[in-house]
Design a protein that fits this description.
The structure is a single chain. The chain has 545 residues and is α/β, with parallel strands linked by helices. Helix content is 37%, strand content 19%. It has a 6-stranded antiparallel β-sheet. Strands 2-1-5-4 form a 4-stranded mixed β-sheet. Strands 3-6-7-8 form a 4-stranded parallel β-sheet, with no helix packed on it. Strand 12 and strand 13 form a beta hairpin.
């Protein structure tokens, strides 16, 4: 903590002149990679200013650089980066074909430095997290290998392996556990091990993972108590033999802890984390964008526990450092990547404005463009961020949505963020807890929006109608074009489609089994595929008219 405090002071000092810090970061990466194939093509050596860089090097997306990546996957070097590629981080594959992002020791160290800085602020405010164990839930860093023999896997695994060793020793789950393929077996094993210990912090990217874990406790609690008492790992689950052996070596009979859990169950009638992990001090997960809904499910399991955002963290880049538990915003990581911003309203224009960090405005939304230590230059991540404010002169940003996740059937241009905000505010207004939802468009003589939803406790028919009416009113507030087209009857009135219990979980499992990363999976709140609501088994449809 003492050594990290010095880094934190240097970081905070740099936020007083962010453009200068950005210039240093950019030219450090250009110099490092000036003799690569990409660096020679765009004459990195001849770039003398930020303006030079922006005029010579084109804006790109993954499709534009995919031919370079394919060669790197085969083992070819010195293409995008002078450093040897030691791995690829790949996306979850929930929105199309996976993207492979090169990882070098240098780029991993830069992300690790930023992770340490994040950990400093979290531990400064929550020193009790060191009093017990950390329940960290990740995806495996190495899932397979490319044709050139280079390993690839999840970004959360890369982040875990970049943690300081002193923190890794506090993690309660053995790393091998995350290679268990069977979904039920993995979640059972997590609970079996974690419930035996005093957990003081939970860390995973997506809060839906935490909710899913908690939802399994009641069905597994008797078996887990017995396993803790005997020091066993149930044979009823498909745990790979080598992983089972690895886990079982760490287990010992613990009748004392089993007795504590039995006593809680007898007294409280339910085993909830807030009862058996009374010293839990912090939950670490994403808080921005489309995951807000899942945050509302945490208090019923954990009570009033602080939650801190991980910051803008993607396969391509880690871009912010949250300094408090409030909100989802974090200070722009100006020493880790070089950033440019396209105003949200310019995304689909041919003549886009491309701004620097000293030109953005509080409250505005932008498409984030990054140049990274790993060989990405003016790369469009298709992430929309919002500027929440400023720390000294440096923007504080939070993730809002994927950039092109919008529907415009009749010109309404409804974004995922519009739908997400409308549903969340409507649910809050009527004090209804929604377990999961997504929106899509039903086609017909007049197209209309359909909200597929699953509740924790099913509301009455009247409550469901009021909820749907409120969603419609909130979407009017979010999107004027939608309001105009509805009043002109070019769009029909929406439908609330109540799906059968477990349907979203089924969909999640299907996506994970197809190559998605369990801990990073995000159910899109707006599906571009028309009539997507038909993917789910429907129990009831609620109409406004």
């Amino acid at each position: 903590m003492n050594s990290l405090a010095l880094r934190a002071r240097l970081f905070e000092e740099s936020t007083k002149d962010p453009l200068r810090a950005q210039e240093r970061t950019l030219f450090k990466y250009l110099a490092r990679n000036r003799n690569t194939e990409y660096g020679l093509k765009y004459n990195f050596s001849g770039i003398k200013s930020i303006a030079d860089f922006r005029s010579r090097v084109p804006l790109v997306d993954f499709k534009d650089i995919s031919s370079y990546i394919e060669r790197m996957k085969k083992g070819d070097g010195n293409i995008l980066t002078a450093d040897k590629v030691i791995a690829f981080s790949n996306t979850s594959g929930t929105t199309g074909m996976p993207k492979f992002i090169p990882v070098t020791r240098y780029s991993r160290d830069r992300k690790s430095d930023l992770m340490n800085l994040w950990a400093y602020y979290a531990c400064r405010d929550h020193p009790k997290v060191f009093d017990g164990k950390i329940l960290g839930i990740i995806s495996a860093e190495t899932e397979n290998r490319t044709e050139g023999g280079i390993p690839y896997g999840a970004e959360s695994g890369v982040a875990y392996n970049g943690l300081p060793q002193i923190m890794k020793r506090l993690y309660v789950l053995p790393y091998r556990l995350f290679y268990i393929k069977d979904f039920d077996a993995r979640y059972y094993s997590m609970l079996r091990i974690a419930m035996e210990h005093d957990i003081t912090t939970i860390a995973t990217l997506n809060p839906s993972t935490i909710v899913l874990l908690c939802q399994r406790i009641e069905a597994l609690q008797d078996r887990i108590i017995e396993d803790i008492e005997k020091g066993t790992l149930s044979k009823d689950f498909k745990v790979e033999p080598d992983i089972r052996l690895n886990i079982e070596k760490t287990l010992r009979p613990n009748p004392k802890r089993a007795g504590e859990l039995k006593a809680i169950l007898e007294e409280r009638k339910k085993l909830l984390p807030k009862y058996f992990w009374p010293n839990l001090d912090l939950i670490e997960c994403w808080k921005g964008g489309t995951v807000k809904l899942y945050l509302k499910g945490l208090p019923q399991y954990f009570g009033d526990v602080a939650v801190r955002d991980f910051g803008c963290l993607s396969t391509e880049a880690r871009s912010s450092v949250p300094m408090s538990d409030e909100g989802a915003g974090g200070v722009l990581a100006i020493g880790t990547n070089f950033y440019e911003y396209i105003p949200k309203e310019d995304i689909d224009k041919d003549d886009k404005r491309v701004l620097l960090c000293d030109q953005v405005e509080e409250g505005r939304e932008y498409l984030l463009i990054v140049t990274t230590a790993g060989g990405l230059y003016r790369y469009n991540m298709d992430d929309v961020i919002k500027v929440d404010g400023f720390f000294n002169k440096t923007p504080a940003i939070e993730f809002v949505q994927k950039g092109h996740n919008a529907i415009s059937i009749t010109g309404e241009k409804v974004y995922e963020s519009h739908v997400n905000e409308a549903v969340n505010r409507a649910a809050d207004k009527h004090k209804i807890l929604i377990k999961a939802f997504c929106a899509s468009v039903a086609t017909g003589n007049t197209s209309r929006y359909v909200y597929s939803v699953e509740f924790y406790e099913t509301p009455s028919l009247d409550e469901k109608r009021k909820l749907l009416a409120s969603i419609e009113e909130e979407l009017y507030e979010e999107n004027n074009e939608y309001y105009d087209l509805r009043t002109e009857h070019l769009l029909g009135s929406p439908i609330l489609s109540v799906v059968k219990e477990g349907e979203f979980e089924r969909y999640r499992r299907e996506k994970v089994s197809q190559g998605g990363h369990d801990t990073q999976f995000k159910l899109p709140k707006l599906f571009l595929k028309l009539d997507f609501y038909k993917e789910f088994e429907i129990e009831e449809n609620i109409y406004l008219d």
